[in-house]
Amino acid sequence: MGVIVFAFSYLGNFLDAKYPNPHQLFVKILVLFGVAISFYNINRQLKDINKSSDDPS
């Protein structure tokens, strides 16, 4: 989870340096997107774990 958020934050910082704006929008948008992807990934993994633990075989 942390790696994904860090990668999107790094990309946002890179884009803000390349295309400057007063509110650092790229960092804010990409970090939120990275957090959403991380939560989706964790949710998917937990569903798989729960499904495998409910399997009687």
Strand fraction equals under 5%
Count of helical regions: 2
Distance between the termini: 31 Å
Assembly level: single chain
The description of the largest β-sheet is:
none
The helix/strand series, from N terminus to C terminus, equals HH
* Proportion in helices: over 70%
**Total strand count, please?**
0
Q: Work out the radius of gyration.
A: 17 Å
SSE-based structural type? mainly alpha
| Mean pLDDT, all residues | 93
Poorly predicted residue ranges: none
Describe the structure.
- The protein has 57 residues and is an all-alpha fold.
- The chain contains 2 helices and no strands.
- The protein has helices at residues 2-18, 25-54.
- Helix 1 (2-18) runs antiparallel to helix 2.
- It is rod-shaped and about 55 Å long.
Quick structural gist:
The chain is mainly alpha-helical and 57 residues long. Helices cover 82% and strands 0% of the residues. The chain is rod-shaped and about 55 Å long.
Fill in the keyword field for this structure.
57 residues; mainly alpha
